[in-house]
Protein: Polysulfide reductase
Organism: Thermus oshimai JL-2
Amino acid sequence: MTEFYGLPNAGEFWHWTNALHFVLVGLAGGVALLAAYLHLKRHEEARRYTLWALALIALDLFVLWAESPARFRFTHVWLFLSFHPQSPIGWGAWGLALSFLTGGLLFLGKGPQRALAWAFLLFSLVALAYPGMALAVNLNRPLWNALLAGLFPLTALVLALALAALLGSPWAREPLRLFAGASLLLTALYPLTLAPEARGHLLEEGGFPFLLFLLLGLGAFQERLGPWMGLLSAAGLRALLVLVGQWQGFGL
């Protein structure tokens, strides 16, 4: 993933903007998925969530551009116009861009609405899946393993459903608890999937916030504060695993 920016895949250079992107892309992809599903169901809130999805996608695409050290080079534009099948971030950039396009057409009521809704759903799934895959393929990072390919889409859905619950949509409560429970299970299993050296680094560098965000996730099952707890837990875990996971191992 790091070579996408023209930088060597070594050292720790990701900062809070990169962590913010991994939170925003989950929220944007999750809300886009909800909006596409609501369009397919012809739900009265479909247009409202499409507008939210468009705003979040635009914000995240800006962050994705702004976080790159090559953002003011003309050649950087071609990173988004080109497509590399082996690059998860390429899938993510195009997934977000095409989600924005199809979502915009749906919001404006232009084109074949049913076909656009299915396309919106497909592209949102790509945006939803890409962050975990982008981390999982970095084999030289001991804290980024295959489990993240499942954990990140689940936390993205928690983010989106928590936002929907906070926006007053009653249908979001039950699936929020379902996906919060699934993400908490994977989160609890995550340290057990790491090598002892990597597990020790996780506990040393991020043990307290990891436990805190795990406990906050349990609050997602509460009636009143559940959406806030789910939102904070999912966002915190995503950011923490991005920042702490840059570690390459002892002696490297």
About this structure: DSSP finds nine helices and no strands in the chain. Residues 1-11 have pLDDT under 50 and may be disordered.
